Amino acid sequence: MKAKEKEIVNDIELEMENIKEEKAEVKIMDLPGVGAATAEKLEAAGYDSVLSVAVSTIGGLVDASGVGENVARKMIQAARDNMDMGFESGTDVFNRRQKIEKISFGCSNLDNLLGGGFETGAITECFGEFGSGKTQIAHALAVGCQVQDPTAVAVFIDTENTFRPDRIIDFAKGAGIDPDKALKNVKVARAYNSDHQMLLAEKVGDLVKKGLNVKVVIVDSLTAHFRAEFIGRGTLAVRQQKLNKHMHELLRVADMNNVLVYVTNQVMSKPDVFFGDPTAAIGGHIVAHASTFRIYLRKGKKGSRVAKLIDSPNLPDGEAMFYLETDSIKDF
Ligand code: GTP
Ligand code: MG
Tens digit of pLDDT for each residue in 148-185? Predict the structure, then answer.
């Protein structure tokens, strides 16, 4: 069994590799009047995408790349022609909202806390100390979506090497579905650094285009790479900028494909807090604002776990207690 699991994970990694290779989108280099030298200058000045050119001013491009005004105008026009600016009708938005689903793994206390389950089309952030159950919930969601819909696929972007095939098998057995099939329908990709993590998030749309019924996208952990790569006060602004971009990409993935995006986050201690809980999620407001649902997890009495919903726009704040078991996540 172990060898087989390995094989499956390898297959999946290969699949993600192939997707990385297929790149058809228009690059800055493809715009009229842009040669290698101009592209390099533009990049150095922070123009890293066709979108950044499309929304630039003529003067901005002239200053950045030294091209004439006419060329700059043509570049902007071509960039704009190439952009799908993403307008859609209110009816489209309404129809999409009608399709929102609630994903559950059979823990009714958690389902009730979340108004019926984890919502698709939104980001749910789960933060809490080590061992509080963030990664276990990720695995349970990857199986839970398949219990509800046998064709469902879960994408697991693994930044800390915490994906465990055996936990998928355990939960699948607990839920009474075929463990082999459950494993096959989890697409795992290891993210080696924050840029790689951001790229993988952008590639989820390709999986959907290939016809996979992606229902859940997991990023475990959302912040570990960012935290490790940007150390010290001086780098905080850059870190937050990148994290912001990543969160917006994940929001887009959730919204466009009606998938549940589940991200985990560590906490850091706040030594200045004497009352209440002296911990705060990493990433601050940027992560908090982009997440529709925020769950704070902590260890409770008798080995239980306590989930608390924070600042939900349409659900009452409350708490849910549960146990992490081998084959399931059970009510306390
Ligand atoms: P960090 O990633 O370290 O921040 O923690 P986390 O919040 O992701 O913790 P995780 O979800 O990995 O939870 C770990 C806990 O899950 C363990 O301490 C166990 O209590 C429980 N757990 C993990 N695997 C099993 C299992 O096979 N059986 C049982 N009964 N419990 C398990
Ligand atoms: Mg974890």
Answer: 999 999 999 999 999 999 999 999 999 999 999 999 99
Instruction: For residue range 286-321, list pLDDT tens digits in order.
Output: 888 888 899 999 999 999 999 999 877 778 888 999
132 alpha carbon – ligand 2 mean position (Å)? 8
Could you please state the CATH topology (level 3) that the domain comprising 96-331 is classified under.
Rossmann fold (3.40.50)
Q: Is the pTM of this model over 0.85?
A: no
| d(C-alpha 200, C-alpha 191), whole Å | 7
Which residue, 317, 286, 323, 321, is CA-closest to 303? 323
Domain boundaries, given as residue ranges, for the chain: 3-83, 96-331
CATH architecture, domain 3-83: Orthogonal Bundle (1.10)
| Complete DSSP assignment for 64-129 | HH---HHHHHHHHHHHHHH-------HHHHHHHHHT--EE--S-HHHHHHTTSSEETTEEEEEEES
CB-based contact 169:182 (threshold 8 Å): yes
What are the backbone dihedrals phi and psi of residue 124, each rounded to the nearest 5 degrees, phi first?
-110, 125
Closest C-alpha among 262, 264, 247, 225 to residue 130: 264
Distance 11 CA to ligand 2 centre (A): 24
Amino acid residing at 283: G
List all residues whose CB is within 6 A of at least one atom of ligand 1.
128, 130-136, 162, 266, 324-326
Pocket test for ligand 1, best of 173, 298, 324 (most atoms within 8 A of CB): 324
Report pLDDT digits (tens) over 99-118: 999 999 999 999 999 999 99
